[in-house]
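re the bet — no i am not wrong, look at it urself. input seq straight from the record:
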Amino acid sequence: MLCCALLALLFAGWRKTARASTDSPRRAGALRTRRTPTGVPVVQQPLTPYRRPGVLHRLISLGLIGVISVIVGAVVAIFTAFIAIAGVIRLTDLLG
């Protein structure tokens, strides 16, 4: 489980950003009628460009996802053991 969590974290850092797609007509060969523009005017503002996370940030994330996966694994193990013990006690009538 730990390996899967670490691989998922690594692959999440290598995603490609979305690119704008071209507008395609709804029907091929259909003539579009001109409509008067309605709606809210949009104001375009400059944005800061996307910066990839640094190596230190990725290493910290890798360590933290490892800690989280260990904690989740421990909790799952505790619940599984509790259910198994309760099942054995119930089936063998040890308490009663």
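see?? The longest helix spans residues 55-92. told u. also Residues 18 and 50 are 12 Å apart (CA to CA). so pay up
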